[in-house]
Amino acid sequence: MKDIYQKKIFDYLLENRIENFIGVPDSTIKYFIERGLKKKKVIVATREEEAIGIAVGMSLSNSSSLVFMQNAGFANSLSAITSLVQLYQIPIIFLIGWRGFLKKDAPEHEKIGKIQPKLLKTLNLESKILDEKNWKNGCDWALRKIRDQRTCALIIKREFLD
Amino acid sequence: MIRKDAISEVVNYIKNEPIVSANGFISRDLYEVNDKPTNFYMIGSMGLASSIGLGIAIKNPKKNVYVFDGDGNILMNLGSLITIGNIKPKNLIHIVFDNSSHESTGGQPTSSKNIKIDHIAKASNYTTFQTNSKIGLKRIFKKIEKISGPILILVNISNSKIKSKRVGINATKIKNRFMSSL
Which end of chain B has fewer CB atoms surrounding its CB within 10 Å, N or C? Predict the structure, then answer.
């Protein structure tokens, strides 16, 4: 996704009262993260579970949070999602960069990239894929989820190779 | 001093301020000793109590936020010490009850006997204290009244056969009453 749209997504979520952006960097969503860093709204954690813990603490304080990560980190996060976020029903938006979406992506992303849609489904974590056309609808959907005290995921595909 | 006695002593110094307690016997002891809405019992997600505490501390700068951690727990999330030390929340008091073992799962050893957790915390911008007694805890809590966080108190404890009951409140209720208390 082009930088302009990633920046728009960040600004839109911020305008709509997502107050905290915590996560582990990913190249697929780097412009989103850059925008947040520039606005001093981002906390970079050491691991994805840690980011989820911090976001939970903020959500418990009635301050809405988004956790960003690569899908490799999403695999790290399963226990934190099931035994913390879902168990306590904490509303959080996950923003996940989808490595392994392209078949020719690096080999370490192949397996997790392939099982990602099923993994989300198995976890009962509702998700939508954001692209350059539908991003606003996707964000509105996620914001509604948060208002209804639900957790959800927004996915951005990695559509380039390097 | 066993963990339950240490927790009984520590709660004397904490008024109506949030406590995030690690999963396993730490939350069970706290629940039995001094259950109240300001306790957030983290019954799963081992390792994350200090991260949750950090999030609460950032958003509630006027309250002291306490984390009741264990050596096994913090060793699973050492990166948390780095992030906390980098952000330096003045109101975060991180108490690690250290028995150099995973007591909740049968007493298997951790490495904290040979690698000192308070040394790692000190290198991560924490002000650190250590004790193994009630009188030591009393002195430390007096001292920290005048000190800014992040503060880490390493409490060396011994294992025991005493087992507190499980936290008898469901997770969403723990959350709801905790949120109302903030």
Answer: C
